[in-house]
Specification:
Length: 104
């Protein structure tokens, strides 16, 4: 193992040991384990596809859009998703700081 690979491994360990990174992955696993939330996500994707299929049919498009918006609101406002998105923003800031340090 080269010195670079060793330092990269150390950086990875430190990064994955950060509280915000641990929380990010814990929330991601919790979302994936929530069958009701996954079903809601599935339904919103289904209605999104149906909207695209029905661009030529304004009535059906409006129906599918209403369903899509409903499931999207339910999904986006679920506490796990709200916390996940906030945590994801924190991790992004951390990674951006790391990137800026490495580019210097």
């Amino acid at each position: 193992m080269t010195d670079f690979e060793e330092k990269l491994g150390q950086l990875r360990e430190v990064l994955f040991d950060r509280e915000e990174v641990k929380r990010y992955f814990a929330l991601k696993r919790a979302i994936e384990a929530d069958s009701e939330l996954m079903k809601t996500n599935e339904l919103l994707r289904l209605h999104q596809k149906e909207m695209a299929k029905n661009l030529h049919n304004p009535k059906k498009y409006a129906e599918e859009k209403a369903l899509f918006e409903h499931y999207s609101d339910v999904y986006q406002n679920h506490p796990l998703v709200v916390n996940y998105e906030a945590c994801k923003a924190d991790v992004y800031v951390l990674l951006t700081q790391l990137k800026n340090i490495l580019e210097k």
